TrEMBL record:
Its main location: cytoplasm. The gene is rsmA. Keywords: Cytoplasm, Methyltransferase, RNA-binding, rRNA processing, S-adenosyl-L-methionine, Transferase. Residues 1-45 are annotated as: Disordered. It catalyses: adenosine(1518)/adenosine(1519) in 16S rRNA + 4 S-adenosyl-L-methionine = N(6)-dimethyladenosine(1518)/N(6)-dimethyladenosine(1519) in 16S rRNA + 4 S-adenosyl-L-homocysteine + 4 H(+). It comes from Enemella dayhoffiae. HAMAP family: 16SrRNA_methyltr_A (MF_00607). Residues 1-21 have a biased composition (Basic residues). Specifically dimethylates two adjacent adenosines (A1518 and A1519) in the loop of a conserved hairpin near the 3'-end of 16S rRNA in the 30S particle. May play a critical role in biogenesis of 30S subunits. Belongs to the class I-like SAM-binding methyltransferase superfamily. rRNA adenine N(6)-methyltransferase family. RsmA subfamily. This is Ribosomal RNA small subunit methyltransferase A. Residues 96-270 form the Ribosomal RNA adenine methylase transferase N-terminal domain. Residues 22-31 have a biased composition (Basic and acidic residues).
C-alpha cells in the first residue's frame, strides 16, 4: 500500500490510498480500552518536567510534535492496541523526539527514511528539518492515519511526506527521492534484520541514527575481543562506522518496555577491499559465530572440507587457525572469504 498526497478541492492535499490486499490481524488478547472515556490502558502522562520544557507561556506545545495526551487521543481514535509481536513501543515525549532529531544531525537537504512511524511522533520531528521524509509502516490503520496527522499538526510540511504501507524487510524500492539517511525507532523484535536489509538495499543511505534495545545497541557497536561482539557487530561494520550516542529511558514510551533503549549513529563507509561478494563474506561470519567458542579451523571445517583444509585457507588469509571469530575484524573475514574463492594449492 502506498499513500501519497494529491491536490484536492480548493488546492488542499488529500491522501490517496493504494492497497495491496493485505489485511492486518489484531490479537484478541491485547488490553481493551478502559473506562467510559475509552482511553487506552497504560499510556502514562508526559513527565511534568518534560511538559514544562515543551510548553510555552500559554501551556500549548511550541511545535506540532505529539505529547502523551495527543498519543492517547490518536490511539483511542484508532482503537489501537500495540502488539509485542510487532515490537510496537511508541514515543510519547516531544523532548525525546527533539533529542533524536538533533542526534541524527540532519540537514535541510536530507531525504530521511523512517521505519515503523507508528502514530507519527518522530515523523513530525523529521519533517520539521529534512527536505523530504519517506516512511514505511506495516499496519494499515497507522499508515492511513499518518498523512492526516501531519495535515492536522504540520500542514505546511504535508507535501514533504510519502507513506509506504509494507513490511520493511521486503521493501526494495521507494517513491520519491532516494533516501540519504535513516532515522527510526526500530521495532525491537526485528531491529537488526531491518537495519542490515536497508543498508544492503539502499546504497544512497550515507548516515543514520536508530533507536533499538540498549543490549542490541551495545552489540551493534561492540569491538573485537568483547564478549558481546558477534554477527550484528561485524555485519554492520561492513557498511558503517557506528557508535552509541545516548540512552533513552522506558518512561518515554507507550507501552512502557522493560528495558532501556540506545541510540546508534552510523556513517557509511566503503566495504573492505575484496574480490569476494558480500554474501560470501557474511557466510563466513555466520559460520565463525555459530558456535563462538570454536576455533576457526573447526568452525569453517564444513565449508572447507575438513579442519586441515580450513587451517590452510586461514593461513593463506593471514589468520591464525586457532583464533576465534570474536577476535577478528570485518577485514579479516573478507580476506578469508576471498581466499576461499581462490584455487586451492
Amino acid at each position: 500500500m502506498l499513500l501519497r498526497r494529491t491536490p484536492g478541492k480548493g488546492g488542499r492535499r488529500t491522501p490517496r490510498v493504494r492497497r495491496t490486499g493485505r489485511t492486518v490481524e489484531r490479537r484478541r488478547d491485547q488490553p481493551r480500552l478502559a473506562g467510559g472515556g475509552g482511553d487506552p490502558v497504560g499510556i502514562p502522562a508526559e513527565p511534568r518536567a518534560h511538559r514544562a520544557r515543551a510548553a510555552g507561556a500559554s501551556g500549548e506545545l511550541v511545535s506540532g510534535l505529539l505529547d502523551a495526551r495527543s498519543v492517547r487521543e490518536l490511539a483511542t481514535r484508532l482503537d489501537l492496541r500495540p502488539t509485542k509481536q510487532r515490537g510496537q513501543n511508541f514515543v510519547i515525549d516531544a523532548n525525546t523526539v527533539r533529542r533524536i532529531v538533533k542526534a541524527a544531525e540532519l540537514s535541510a537537504d536530507d531525504i530521511a527514511l523512517e521505519i515503523g512511524p507508528g502514530l507519527g511522533s518522530l515523523t513530525l520531528g523529521l519533517l520539521d528539518v529534512a527536505r523530504h521524509v519517506t516512511v514505511v509502516e506495516i499496519e494499515d490503520s497507522l499508515a492511513a492515519q499518518l498523512p492526516r496527522t501531519v495535515a492536522e499538526r504540520m500542514p505546511e510540511r504535508a507535501d514533504r511526506l510519502d507513506v509506504v504501507g509494507a513490511d520493511a524487510l521486503r521493501v526494495t524500492d521507494l517513491p520519491g527521492p532516494a533516501p540519504t539517511t535513516v532515522v527510526a525507532n526500530l521495532p525491537y523484535n526485528v531491529s537488526v534484520p531491518v537495519l542490515l536489509h536497508l543498508l544492503a538495499t539502499f546504497g544512497s543511505l550515507q548516515r543514520g541514527l536508530v533507536m533499538v534495545q540498549l543490549e542490541v545497541a551495545d552489540r551493534l557497536v561492540a569491538a573485537p575481543g568483547s564478549k558481546i561482539y558477534g554477527v550484528p557487530s561485524v555485519k554492520l561494520a561492513w557498511y558503517c562506522e557506528a557508535r552509541r550516542v545516548g540512552t533513552v529511558p522506558p518512561s518515554v514510551f507507550w507501552p512502557v518496555p522493560n528495558v532501556d533503549s540506545g541510540l546508534v549513529r552510523m556513517i557509511r563507509r566503503e566495504p573492505p577491499a575484496t574480490t569476494a561478494t558480500r554474501e560470501q563474506v557474511f557466510q563466513v561470519i555466520d559460520l565463525a559465530f555459530a558456535q563462538r567458542r570454536k576455533m576457526l579451523r573447526a568452525a569453517l571445517s564444513g565449508l572447507c572440507g575438513g579442519s586441515a583444509a580450513a587451517s590452510q585457507v586461514l593461513e593463506r588469509a593471514g589468520v591464525d587457525p586457532q583464533a576465534r571469530g570474536e577476535s577478528l575484524l570485518v577485514q579479516d573475514f573478507a580476506r578469508i572469504a576471498q581466499t576461499l574463492s581462490l584455487p586451492r594449492e
